[in-house]
Amino acid sequence: MTLGRDSRMRILVTGGAGFLGSFLCERLVEQGHDVICVDNFYTGSKRNIDGLLGKPNFELIRHDVTFPLYVEVDRIFNLACPASPIHYQRDPVQTTKTSVHGAINMLGLAKRVKARILQASTSEVYGDPEVHPQPESYLGKVNPIGPRSCYDEGKRCAETLFFDYHRQHGLEIKVVRIFNTYGPRMHPNDGRVVSNFIVQALRGEPLTIYGDGSQTRSFCYVDDLIDGFLRMMDSPPDFTGPVNLGNPGEFTMLELAEAVLHLTGSISKLEFHRLPPDDPRQRRPDISLAGSALGWAPRVDLEDGLLDTVGYFRSIFST
Ligand code: NAD
Ligand code: UDP
To answer: Distances in Å between the alpha carbon of 308 and those of 129, 170, 181, 185, 188?
Structure first.
């Protein structure tokens, strides 16, 4: 697709070499925008953006968002931050710095160049929720001092900064709260449940169930989520969010394990492990706001999305 001179934009994607960021960069490049991908490769990799590196409208900058960045852009998608519990807990101080200093630096940049800026926030701002499903109006139940806090509180503080820059400096902001998203290109050692179960099933290893497996999550396929990102960025200036993006189908971890075993044809056993501290008991997005404000709803059901993801992991294990 070729865009006219007026609709072609310079778009910065922080965390662009990560799982979600690489799909987002791809879509924006395809649309004909000039895309700058910024990443420090903490969890991302050049392999994720291999297909983009030679394109004339794609540029990669190795940079840590906790330091200021000077570029001239029209729009910013701020995704930089490790998302998997094992990765964000490896260096928790850096995780908080990435969310908070990263937000300050990207908001400062947006203010200087008058860019519209979108924040990739998370369902973790609801913590271990007492309201189910979670609407955007629910204020959350988050432990401020536990092992997940570096991520949860970092993301909550980033939302605060976004809304204060909006109120104080008139910045055009967009905040999306992402619920568990999965798909091809997740790192095999990412540690999140979907990739763990698929990798374990394909290798014939036991599937590691934390706790008794009765906790629930709602899983959104990556293509649906990216569609939600793009709709949110293009929404009218007075719509700031926060808006939930996720698939409201809700499954226990035991149901997910059964589905993965069925789709892979694996005879792996289940192995029960200790439940990590502060692991939320249940999670499901209320997506009525995304429907009414963005005309968005996910289309890919869990079985189809898992099949694609299983196909991806089979292909990387066979090369
Ligand atoms: P990911 O770990 O694959 O991607 C994060 C990217 O950010 C990586 O490429 C990493 O190298 C980069 N990064 C980390 N710290 C950085 C820093 N200081 N400077 C520059 N780059 C840095 O994770 P993902 O699943 O693609 O998540 C992307 C964003 O979406 C994150 O902000 C995450 O919090 C949010 N999110 C994701 C999910 C999900 O289920 N995937 C759910 C909720 C929120
Ligand atoms: N989980 C599991 N086995 C694994 C990895 C995770 O049972 O090998 C559980 C985890 O305890 C949580 C759920 O799966 O209840 C989702 O975990 P994930 O790390 O994917 O995301 P988050 O907890 O951040 O939603």
So the answer is: 30, 42, 13, 11, 15
Number of domains observed in the structure of the chain: 1
Residue nearest to atom 23 of ligand 1 (CA): 83
Closest ligand to Cα 103? 1
- The answer as to whether 207 is a domain residue is no
Tens digits of residue pLDDT in 123-170: 999 999 999 999 999 999 999 999 999 999 999 999 999 999 999 999
DSSP string, 130-142: SSSSBPTT---B-
Positions annotated as catalytic residues are 151
CATH of residue 227's domain is 3.40.50.720
Res 1 pLDDT > 70? no
In a domain, 316, yes or no: no
Residue 265 has pLDDT above 80, yes or no: yes
User: How far is ligand 2, taken at its centre, from the CA of residue 193, in Å?
Assistant: 5
Mean pLDDT of the chain: 96
Domain range for residue 18?
10-182+221-248+284-299
Please indicate, yes or no, if residue 4 is contained in any of the structural domains: no
Task: Report yes or no on 159 lying in a domain.
Answer: yes
Ligand 1: which residues within 6 Å by Cβ?
Answer: 14-15, 17-21, 39-44, 64-66, 79-83, 98, 102, 120, 122, 178, 180-181
Phi, psi of 127 (to 5 degrees): 60, -135
Please state, as a whole number, how many other Cβ atoms lie within 10 Å of the Cβ of residue 271.
11
pTM of this structure: 0.97
